Give the backbone structure.
Amino acid sequence: MRIFFIFFIFLSNLYSSNLYDKLVDKFYISEDLQSYKQLTKTNYKQYNNIKLKQFSVKIVLKKEVLENSVYYVNVISDMDSLVYTNTKYTRINNTITIKLDKNTPNILYFQYKYKVPKRGEFRYSPMSEFEYKYIYYNEGILYGIAYGIIFCAFLYYLIISFSSRRKYFLYYSLMQLCVLISLICFTYFSFKPYISNFEQAFVDFFETTAFLFTLLFSKEVLNTKKIMPRFNLLINIFIVLNLVDLFAITIFKYSILYKYCSFYIGFLIPFVAGIIAIYNKNRYAIIYTIGWFMMVCFLFFIENFMFPLSGIYAIHIAAPLESMIFSFALGIMLKDLVEEQNEKEKLLIHKSKLISMGEMLNNIAHQWRQPLTHLGFINMNIQLSLEDKSIDKEYLKEKIEESNSQIDFMSDTINSFRDFYKPQKDKEFFYISQAVKNSIDIMKPLLGIYDIKLDFLVINDIKIKSYKNEYSQVILNLITNAKDELVLNKVKNPTIVIKVDSIDNKSLTTVCDNAGGIKEENINKIFEPYFSTKDSGSGIGLYMSKTIINSHFKGELVAQNKKMGACFSVKV
């Protein structure tokens, strides 16, 4: 008689099939409740999408296994339609739990009768005595802790990936997201008596995607392309296989790659890459390799039933454990990354100071040139008077006073520059206009050489408590950049306009020029370190200016093009 039956066994790839083979000898189904047909993993799919009024299930156990051991079986089905079973069970919602020991019948019978024909609902999964006693009744806690750890790892490193712009943080974050989605779906579907093709494809898709991002993460964090080019080729091949598998899942509704390839292989490849990286003295690889080694061993032992855990419990323990180990490693890397960034910033600040010192010396030279010339004329006049023997005390006194006046001017110039570049440890109250005027006074002689007109307007001044010299340095950089552009472009009637105003109770200082503006393709790059449009430019002036305003003043420095040229706005 033809059997009309739909049956789907939702078993973990990691464990249940092994325990199933260990406990179950044969599995039979019957529609007429008399003749039974053996159901195997290869022929159960032929009964999909067929409805039936009644059916019976017969499970033949391997009793020799139960002589000295105890196991349990969970059966998920329509409990209200169960009309007969020959074994004792404990009912929890729509799930029944059966204890398997030496007193259990050799054959378990389950008979169902529906009021309205529908798909047959019957799925069972065995578990060990350890799982039943210590995990089964607390599995909700296990799942909650696992999902919480994985979600936190995903969110934390997603945020870090955007701030650090490091690909391996992004790959790790996306890997955690895929693991989380697949685990949630895996758990949800495990409480259903059958799983549709779409549901199976959905889980497989995110599982494969998780392995894909694991490989991409390994490539990036271990720098396999540079350190191990040959092994990198193997990783690339496996990445391609995962991409092909994703495409195959959309067609065949299940993962072909991981049907024939064990899950632990997906971690074995990055584990070997980690060993190679350690050999090449990559200290970060040590913790990663420990994490991958743990996953390889854990999955291998579970697949071969060396641990008394089913796949669904094992993966909810292994996944968050892996997240914690890798988060620890990434935390160390992030700490070193921050320290490296700080060192680079210190180097940039030092370089910026050297450049500023050069500009300072240039400005001092321009301001000293005139008094030095004047002193030279004084000395020449005194020498001529001595030669003519016509010098008198009043003339000599006049020249000495004139000479002292020039020396005082030169000394004041030194003091002005010294105070301007002197580092400040403590904040002080100052008006924005004062800090801006200090920068203007230093640049005036240099602007005069190039006939650059500077208009300074104070519309609304604000007093703040911060680092006055640093604010002046920022304005000095903006004036210097404006001067350089005006000279470079040979602008007629070159002009720099500086305005001090306020908006929303914050100070707003604008430095604008008429040099034609910044090219659109460069306007988003000018604040990046080492980017410069000038042949002799260092590319760190604007970067350091923006860093100072953002970090020390909690403000913002932006650039935009106006009608006549570029305009920089400092809001603090």
